Amino acid sequence: MARFTLPGETGMEEKIKELVELWGVDAIRDSDGTTLSDELMNLGLNVYSTLCLVRMDNEWIMKHPQYRQQMYLMSERVTADEETVRINIMETIYAEQFEPNDDVDINKYWQVVDRTCNEIIVNWTYEKETTEVIIQNAKRFHQYDVVFLAYQKWEPVSMYNHITNKWTSEHKIPIDVRHKEAGDHILEILEDWLTNHPKTDVVRFTTFFYCFDLIYNQYGKEKQVNWFGYAACVSPLALTGFQEEYGYELFPDDLADNRMYNTPFKNPTKKYLDWMDFNQRFVAEFAKKCVDLVHKHNKKAIMFLGDHWAGTEPYGKYFEMIGLDAVVGAAGDGVTTRMIADIPIKETEARFYPYFFPDIFREGGEPVKESLNVWSKCRRAIIQKPMERMGYGGYLSLACMFPDFIDHVKDVAEQFRFIYDSSDGRGSEKTGIKVAVLNSWGKIKTWQTHQVAHSLWNQRCYSYLGAMEIMAGLPIEVEFISFDDIRKNGIREDIDLILNAGDAGTAWSGAENWIDAGILETIRSWVYAGGGFIGIGEPTAYPNEGKLFMLEDVLGVQKEIGLTASCNKPNREEHLEAHFITKDVNTTVDYGEGMSMIYQASPSATVLDVAKRSCSLVVNEYGKGRSMYMAGCPFNDDNARILFRSILWATHNENLEGKWITDNIHVECNYFNGIAVLNNNSDFAQTVKVEGKVYEVDPYGLKVLE
Amino acid sequence: MARFTLPGETGMEEKIKELVELWGVDAIRDSDGTTLSDELMNLGLNVYSTLCLVRMDNEWIMKHPQYRQQMYLMSERVTADEETVRINIMETIYAEQFEPNDDVDINKYWQVVDRTCNEIIVNWTYEKETTEVIIQNAKRFHQYDVVFLAYQKWEPVSMYNHITNKWTSEHKIPIDVRHKEAGDHILEILEDWLTNHPKTDVVRFTTFFYCFDLIYNQYGKEKQVNWFGYAACVSPLALTGFQEEYGYELFPDDLADNRMYNTPFKNPTKKYLDWMDFNQRFVAEFAKKCVDLVHKHNKKAIMFLGDHWAGTEPYGKYFEMIGLDAVVGAAGDGVTTRMIADIPIKETEARFYPYFFPDIFREGGEPVKESLNVWSKCRRAIIQKPMERMGYGGYLSLACMFPDFIDHVKDVAEQFRFIYDSSDGRGSEKTGIKVAVLNSWGKIKTWQTHQVAHSLWNQRCYSYLGAMEIMAGLPIEVEFISFDDIRKNGIREDIDLILNAGDAGTAWSGAENWIDAGILETIRSWVYAGGGFIGIGEPTAYPNEGKLFMLEDVLGVQKEIGLTASCNKPNREEHLEAHFITKDVNTTVDYGEGMSMIYQASPSATVLDVAKRSCSLVVNEYGKGRSMYMAGCPFNDDNARILFRSILWATHNENLEGKWITDNIHVECNYFNGIAVLNNNSDFAQTVKVEGKVYEVDPYGLKVLE
Question: How many contacts (CB atoms, under 8 Å) link A and B?
Answer without folding.
Answer: 164
